[in-house]
UniProtKB/TrEMBL annotation:
It is a multi-pass membrane protein. SUPFAM superfamilies: Porins. This is Porin. The keyword Membrane applies. Pfam families: Porin_4.
């Protein structure tokens, strides 16, 4: 089957799954904390700031996910997930987005024993490695690795401001391939493309 026809069939399958609404679940996490911080972004590094914030140990979110068994070891599924701030009731800014299902929004087709392909907005393949080195992988407030990867208005512990180095964990227009477990290992690769008008190839003379 040609790649274009394969993707067309994949999208049709995902759309049919969503319309049937079989195996759809609502999920979420509500996490809030109150306390004091010494190195609050936007405040002097020596100031103590009293806060009530969302997402201390886990980022608050809600979402929808569904799946359907297509037979022959094939299954189709989708995930729609939005970050929320419990302290304000607004949508959380996640990877440069504060609208819609900004944490995850993708459809997937999986084959038992082989793996799956995902299309949409999601975490990249690199986050499988990044997450294993974060003692609180999905923490908004307490994970120390946030100081390493974040590039906010000010860095923690009195360090100089960091600009332009923040890693956007979630990519738009992403295709991700993920293998089934191979013993203790899982391999994945992803690519995120930008949107825009297609450029005409330039002709060069001899």
């Amino acid at each position: 089957m040609k790649p274009s026809l394969l993707f067309a069939a994949f999208l049709c399958t995902a759309a049919c799954t969503a319309s049937a609404q079989t195996g759809v679940n609502i999920f979420g996490i509500a996490d809030a904390w109150v306390g004091q911080t010494r190195h609050k972004a936007g405040a002097a590094s020596t100031d103590r700031v009293s806060v009530l914030e969302s997402g201390g140990a886990q980022a608050s979110r809600w979402g929808l996910r569904g799946s359907e068994d297509l037979g022959g070891g094939l299954s189709a599924r989708f995930v729609l997930e939005q970050g929320i701030s419990l302290d304000s009731g607004t949508v959380t800014n996640v990877s440069a987005s504060n609208v819609g299902f900004n944490r995850n929004a993708y459809v997937a087709l999986a084959k038992s024993g082989l793996g799956e392909v995902r299309l949409g907005r999601m975490l990249t393949a690199y986050d499988a490695l990044r997450g294993s080195n974060n003692q609180l992988y999905d923490s908004s407030g307490f994970a120390s690795t946030g100081q390493v990867w974040g590039a906010g208005a000010a860095a923690g512990n009195g360090q100089a401001e960091v600009k332009g180095s923040d890693y956007l964990a979630r990519g738009n227009n992403t295709v991700l391939l993920r293998t089934a477990p191979m013993g203790p290992f899982i391999a994945s690769v992803s690519a995120s493309a930008g949107k825009g008008p297609r450029q005409k190839p330039r002709r060069r003379g001899c």
